[in-house]
Amino acid sequence: MDDLDRRILAALQKNNLLSFANLAEVVGSSSASCMRRVNRLRSSGVIVADISLVDPKALGKSLTVVVTVELDRERLDLVDDFKRAMRAASEVSQCYMVTGDADFVLIVTVDDVEAFDIFVKTKLYTNPNVRKFQSMITLDRVKFEPRIKV
What we know:
Number of helices: 5
Oligomer: single chain
Order of helices and strands: HHHEHEEHE
Shape: elongated
């Protein structure tokens, strides 16, 4: 990956709707070169998705909760079961397996406290491998920047 690839990635992370002509203007290259490079970055898995970021509040999802989860047993099959369950849970927008006191950190986005209570009862209390969890309701999103510094 060279400097032009990095400039392309930085530009696309700000606006992935740029035409190849506009992208070329921003990064100082030709449209054809940008098209080849973007296609290569996509096919090689550097660019994993082209998405639109949506404001959760605009969809009525006014509550974001950070949840730490400690599993009872760390057998590989049980950890994989938990991962699978969190991938399937529409309320979970992010799930990280971590080191330290907790085994997982979840970012849960829901309509309100009642919806979070339903999530807890259906996804955490019902999982026999969840030893304990702690939830932290967010008061203010101070920074949310899903870009990677290139």
